Structures are given as structure tokens and as C-alpha cells.
Inverse folding.
């Protein structure tokens, strides 16, 4: 009979705690879906990091581009979008170059870094890209970058 109180305690802990909602979730700002596509020299770019940085620096959202250049922003939960507002946008992609070992395998020794996208787009203090996320509109942005 000693197992019954232990089982009841476990059941109470599992079901009792799962019914409560995290107060932060209710307090956080509402997001709206934001999607887009990134082209570099008129071609989709895969693996680029897209970041929306609010002008008031109170919110931000980010995503990584797919093979076709598309992205869907995330703020709190995957693909939930961004809080409505005006954003400076940065887009970056960096390739790490490594040295091949004598046997032709990757040695893991970093020999350099290549910035695929020009600095005009990658740094928040220099980016020429902006976007306004609106609460009641389709927020789909196309960014056409040039080298």
C-alpha cells in the first residue's frame, strides 16, 4: 500500500503542473506571420541568416533561408513571425574555409572566412534594408541583393 501515495503524488505533480500557463506567454507582444525571399544577384540564396531588428530595439526576429531563398521569421516560437513595427533588416552568410589534411580529408583547421553577402546588408549599423511589419496585412518581403 505504500506505493499508492507515491503514485498519487506523481499523478498530481504531472497533471497539476501542466494545467498552469506560463504568465510570460500571456504578456509577450502579439506577432504576425512574416515571410519572404532573398535573392543574391537575382538567384535564391540558401543558408543566409535574415534578422529583423526593431528601430526601438525592443524586439527582433530571425530566420534562415531555404534552398529557394524563402524564409519565415521566428520571434518566440518557430515561424510565429514578428511584432508589428519598423525594422532594420540584416542578411548574412558566412562560409568557413578549412585546410585539407595530407590525405585529402578535412583537417578542421580554419584557414579563412568568406562573407558571401556584402557588408552593406550584413551589419545593422550599415544595412540599407528596412521593412515595416503591419498587423492586418500580408507581410511578405523580397530582398534583392547585389554584390
Amino acid at each position: 500500500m505504500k506505493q499508492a501515495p507515491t503514485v498519487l503524488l506523481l499523478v498530481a505533480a504531472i497533471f497539476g503542473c501542466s494545467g498552469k500557463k506560463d504568465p510570460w506567454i500571456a504578456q509577450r507582444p502579439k506577432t504576425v506571420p512574416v515571410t519572404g525571399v532573398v535573392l543574391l544577384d537575382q538567384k535564391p540564396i540558401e543558408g543566409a541568416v535574415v534578422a529583423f531588428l526593431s528601430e526601438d530595439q525592443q524586439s527582433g526576429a530571425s530566420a534562415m533561408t531555404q534552398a529557394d531563398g524563402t524564409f519565415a521569421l521566428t520571434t518566440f516560437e518557430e515561424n510565429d513571425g514578428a511584432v508589428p513595427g519598423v525594422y532594420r533588416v540584416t542578411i548574412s552568410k558566412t562560409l568557413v574555409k578549412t585546410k585539407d589534411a595530407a590525405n585529402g580529408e578535412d583537417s578542421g583547421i580554419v584557414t579563412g572566412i568568406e562573407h558571401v553577402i556584402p557588408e552593406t546588408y550584413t551589419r545593422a549599423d550599415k544595412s540599407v534594408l528596412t521593412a515595416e511589419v503591419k498587423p492586418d496585412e500580408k507581410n511578405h518581403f523580397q530582398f534583392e541583393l547585389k554584390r
User: Anything to note?
Assistant: The two ends are 74 Å apart (CA to CA). The first strand starts at residue 34 and ends at 40. The domain at 30-145 is CATH 2.60.40.10 (Immunoglobulin-like). The helical segments are 3-18, 23-27, 119-122.
